[in-house]
Amino acid sequence: MFVTFITRLISGTGSAYPLAALRIWIALHSLVHALSTLPDMVNLYASQGYIRTEINEIFLWDITLWFTKLRYFINGPDELLYLSITWAGYLLTLLLLGLGKWTRLVSLASWFLHLLWLKSAYLVSYGSDYFTALGLFWCVVAPVSRVWSLDSRRKQPSSHSVAYYYQGLLQITLCCVYFFAGFSKTFGQDWWTGDAVWLVLHKAAFQSVNLDAFRHVDWAWQLLGWLTLLLELGYGLAIWQKQIGAVWLLGILGLHAGIALFMNLPFFGSLLIGLNVCAFPNHLVVYKRWINDMILALNFTHKTLPSTTVSH
């Protein structure tokens, strides 16, 4: 698949649909995530919320402090009003981004507002927030509105190498993310012994399914640890292949589905599932062929089974 990417880039062919799917998915996911945090907006983002602004700024780099400086104007008696206005603006830009209206402008606005809120609650942010920032940034720089958007209604759907170029950059970005995530896990013994999997799944903040019945099955936790390392470290090599890549992508999707289910992180898991599918949509064709082969095999088995007659 990597050779195919280079060939299509040189020849000027490629599809704009994966990037359009990425735009819609990021906008929809971010919109639902933002609405889910709306009841806790004041406690999370107000200057006197769970974490005060002064404490939050201690952990920020100097280059990112200016995002929190922009929020100083909302301190005071009208803080809730300004929080509501900026939050409503964020939701509006995400809605317009999903529809593909004034795409470049609203993607830039939503990316900026997301960073503003992200840095304002740095200590309560996690992986989903950072991958959302990555997705919104991709909507700023990539041609994500050429199809499936209101901006493209007066234009003919086009297929250009520049769209495939940005899709390839997204693919390479994910390869780097998974490699370094797996590489960092190789240090120490926790992931090799399976202790890391056990501890993560039994943390009070993450546990959503009671797995105490499996506490004595040490080999299963060790196997899960090894499988996680294999999937992440081998992602950049295997994902480009046709058949093996489809298997690898299926494993990665299963990994994030497990994170969403067993660690009570549905937004993180679903976001990474969407990013992977949008980055490597060619593997969906392989899945479709597998399903068709299974259906044909089941039909063939059903027809070849000996029929039994009821005697009277």
DSSP helix fraction: 55-70%
Rounded to an integer, what's the Rg over CA atoms? 23 Å
Strand composition percent = under 5%
Number of helices: 16
Pick out the low-confidence regions. none
Q: Describe the oligomeric state of these chains in a short phrase.
A: single chain
Would you list the SSEs in sequence order as H and E? Answer: HHHHHHHHHHHHHHHH
**Count of domain modules:** 2
The best one-word shape is: globular
What is the mean predicted local confidence, pLDDT? 82
What is the end-to-end distance? Answer: 61 Å
Largest sheet: none
Structural class: mainly alpha
Number of strands: 0
Domain HTTM-like: 11-284
Membrane topology: Multi-pass membrane protein
Protein name: HTTM-like domain-containing protein
Subcellular location: Endomembrane system
Keywords, please?
312 residues; mainly alpha; 2 domains; 68% helix; globular
Summarize the structure.
With 312 residues, the chain is mainly alpha-helical.
Question: Overview of this structure, please?
Answer:
By secondary structure, the protein is mainly alpha-helical. It folds into 2 domains: 1-7 and 14-159, no CATH class; 177-297, no CATH class. It contains 16 helices and no strands. The chain has helices at 2-11, 17-36, 41-45, 53-58, 65-69, 79-99, 103-120, 127-141, 161-185, 190-193, 195-201, 218-233, 235-238, 243-262, 266-279, 282-304. Helix 2 (17-36) crosses helix 8 (127-141) and helix 2 (17-36) packs antiparallel against helix 15. 27% of the residues are buried.
